[in-house]
UniProtKB/TrEMBL annotation, chains A, B, C, D:
Annotated family: Belongs to the isocitrate lyase/PEP mutase superfamily. PEP mutase family.
Species of provenance: Lophium mytilinum
InterPro entries assigned: ICL/PEPM, Pyrv/PenolPyrv_kinase-like_dom, Pyrv_kinase-like_dom_sf
Full protein name: Phosphoenolpyruvate phosphomutase
Highest taxon of the lineage: Eukaryota
UniProt-recorded Gene Ontology molecular function terms: catalytic activity
Keywords assigned: Pyruvate
Amino acid sequence: MPPATAQIAALRAALANTSRPAIAMAAHNPLTAKLAHEAGFSAIWVSGFELSASYAVPDASILPVSTHLETTRAMGEVQPLPLIADLDTGYGNAVNLTYVVRQYEAAGAAAIVIEDNVFPKESSLRAGPAGAKRKLAGIAEFQGKIAAAKAASSVLVIARTEALIAGYGEAEALERAAAWAEAGADAVLIHSKAKTPDEVVSFCRKWDGRVPVVIIPTNYPQLGFKEAGELGKVGLVICGNHTVRTVVEAVRKTYKKILEEGGIEGVEGDIASVQEVFKLQGDGEMREIEKKFVR
Amino acid sequence: MPPATAQIAALRAALANTSRPAIAMAAHNPLTAKLAHEAGFSAIWVSGFELSASYAVPDASILPVSTHLETTRAMGEVQPLPLIADLDTGYGNAVNLTYVVRQYEAAGAAAIVIEDNVFPKESSLRAGPAGAKRKLAGIAEFQGKIAAAKAASSVLVIARTEALIAGYGEAEALERAAAWAEAGADAVLIHSKAKTPDEVVSFCRKWDGRVPVVIIPTNYPQLGFKEAGELGKVGLVICGNHTVRTVVEAVRKTYKKILEEGGIEGVEGDIASVQEVFKLQGDGEMREIEKKFVR
Amino acid sequence: MPPATAQIAALRAALANTSRPAIAMAAHNPLTAKLAHEAGFSAIWVSGFELSASYAVPDASILPVSTHLETTRAMGEVQPLPLIADLDTGYGNAVNLTYVVRQYEAAGAAAIVIEDNVFPKESSLRAGPAGAKRKLAGIAEFQGKIAAAKAASSVLVIARTEALIAGYGEAEALERAAAWAEAGADAVLIHSKAKTPDEVVSFCRKWDGRVPVVIIPTNYPQLGFKEAGELGKVGLVICGNHTVRTVVEAVRKTYKKILEEGGIEGVEGDIASVQEVFKLQGDGEMREIEKKFVR
Amino acid sequence: MPPATAQIAALRAALANTSRPAIAMAAHNPLTAKLAHEAGFSAIWVSGFELSASYAVPDASILPVSTHLETTRAMGEVQPLPLIADLDTGYGNAVNLTYVVRQYEAAGAAAIVIEDNVFPKESSLRAGPAGAKRKLAGIAEFQGKIAAAKAASSVLVIARTEALIAGYGEAEALERAAAWAEAGADAVLIHSKAKTPDEVVSFCRKWDGRVPVVIIPTNYPQLGFKEAGELGKVGLVICGNHTVRTVVEAVRKTYKKILEEGGIEGVEGDIASVQEVFKLQGDGEMREIEKKFVR
Ligand SMILES: [Mg+2]
Ligand SMILES: [Mg+2]
Ligand SMILES: [Mg+2]
Ligand SMILES: [Mg+2]
């Protein structure tokens, strides 16, 4: 049994409940994953964008898979939510993905997401060259990757299509989503960077629902979680980048204030106490181990 | 020449200017290091406490040195400030430290800090058992480690004493600081968890100034940077944990709001835009490389 | 259930069969682990000495735990034998060991070995200063570590005493072994660097057999596996360093021959073919994945 | 200045001496790199094939770049020869390579080799499907990668063409080699898996010599180092896989003997002593540090 058997089952059940989608929060380190659990989210999105941003490098296949894998593992060590691992294009072909997905299963992932971009990927939300369609993976090729991932492990496989973002239109998006489901995907992620929910809403209306839909509404935040549920097709909403965006803004403010005021006293009221951080570090459990075993 | 030759020189000069101490900010990943540079700090404190907190584990020799070393290296890849690496007790004896300090030099560190705690360390600010003095390293032993680190590399060695925190009093603190300077330390870090600056102020008054003093005023934030400068002995003030404390507070707020409001629209005004994050990831440089070399 | 449940059970059974001890071979990378499985050994000794030697650094707490942990994990990915992880002194106190042993369990280890040396350790077989007894961990302290490791995971805990090597004599060795068993150790490893088996034979005769004994007969190779079985107490014999020693000798010969002959033709008959290496790399399984899934 | 400035200069000079090519030996860990230095080779080939084999996985873009990068760094820490890093297809496009080559420079590499295979690569010597030509990177695309690598760092860039192996013939091989040189490559690697040196000899005769040629004569070992020099074009001969092939054969023999004889006594004469291994681990230097600094 994979280490995350319980989380896989929980996530599978959550995805199936399309009248009330599960909400996953993006995290880029174990601390933020633990905070997401504490807050009440249902899953962690181990986001390639967030992780790349935390290293201050582009989300463009620059960090090695090992960095993402170890982050996933470390998140599982400190909190119990299902981990949904963002594998980008899958780190190669079906062979490479076979090796990789086994490692994610062993690391405690409950699901992986692979996308039909071409390696090396670039961030979906990045402005591309005007008028040019981004190239996508072939349908048969990507189906092979989905099937390989399913054959290699028990983790859920969420297959993402960039057809809308890459400019191929709704028909292509629907065809690809259907092909992903046919190949064994447990859910399909339809990505859109339209400024309104219309694209995604229309897709959901036409989607036959054979597997649940996953969305990442960064660019169309008007679509609330309840409205997503009313579409009847969405099993999971991913908040894709709100942790690192929060960090950037808040850290900038603290830094500015400290330097302007010439000291650290003024920020005390704005930030968590050291004791709060100790608690998040598991100081309580450490004290119990000390009491029992440090002699 | 070590990769951080310029940073070593800059930090050495900054430490010498005890009328206007340099200010270092704690960071736990390359992104926050880059933000600290952007804000105008003079150095990055590659804090063991912050890094442990970002992994949600106690600051108690639990993370392997490799995690800290790779974080240091990654910080140097994305911003130019001197990196001051928190090596805790030095990861073993003088032999181990020799191996470790060479790796930090190669990773681009400008300085290391070692402390006279006993391995495995625990966080200095953690409440200890009432009435018990924490054990410290022997003076000769610790001098050997300082000398070994100096002999092994060109990075600055900042030697920290926990004499005040461990309950041995000011005389012991002064004796240890003098012993560290005698052994070759480039600066001494006097750590205090008193709730007022008195301990540190008194120490500075009695310190003969043969090498600069470094302080981490977490518990006595009343001491501003200007006041620290007026002591005439302090070359560096380290803001020891304000990044991760900011993160905890701000991330908790965002998460709460998203779940309470049932959507991500409401936090948009509170957090950085995706475009802002792209910029911090070096999207501009990536576009230049693309234009020149991707054919 | 830990990932290595089957291996834990197999190793436990093998240890119990003290009339015919299991034989473990030291390995320093997944390839040599796979070769040990192919040859017919019963377990892999993930040796700190071998691993350090493969990095050309002393076996003296210099490699970070992460390097050893990742090696253990990678060995488990490519062959099915139980992995016995050499944890040296346990990477800290009972708290640190608690964190570490959980990670080894997740990495697929079937057993860990911890030794009563003091951190930072040095290689047991290294010549020490004449006349000086090496310091050992206190009995209660080490019992706490054993108990902590048992409480933290399901992997077998093999507790090693260096009492003979450190010069404290047989009575101390027996007392420590008994204390380790009392604290919950699944087996005790009695280490000796005597040039004959006498020390270990005498220890085994006096040992009451409440848990099996493990030996590493590097310095007393006269003791064959059959003779070890005849002692009736030994559940496991570890070949502690024969892989890396083989590598050094053989690689030196190949290198010398190539340079002396001025070409690579002459060594062809002495070394494995490229096709043999392909097989060990799992080329067969890769071809099957390709056939099924690469489209 | 890059950390390997001296090694870069030495390798550049060696490459230029085409009447007496430098000889590089493949290594897969720091120990074998150190043995190659000891034996008298001129450079270390940080071979992807050897490293993959040491992990018992196919040489097919399965190991993450971080594993290879860290191996390169660790090799540089223990021996002084120039390190020639096998970067396969460059881990992505010109952007990715830019990031990667900077990291190799910081890790102490003297040169990188990139090949015009398509990601994910497979081993050049592996039997492909009958009658099918392996796809290669476009010429302009690969030139962009060479130029990007040159712009990003000071390490030497050796550009490899698989035109012969992929079945495109000599004219294509010459055209590609010329294009690589034009784009800034410091040397071109012409790879062949013919069973005789004819292909490579013919290539060298027609090559105008504007930059030196590098060869890996695994499949045509008849070509000695002296004969390679007589071609007047070859600056470097790489022994591409002889270390791991030696290891497989020798380790198999030792394992077999130990199990057949039922003990470790019989192999003592065949393998290096523990003392020999201590020496290779730098025990001598460790003792000096101990004497000076461990108090
Ligand atoms: Mg992503
Ligand atoms: Mg610290
Ligand atoms: Mg050992
Ligand atoms: Mg290769």
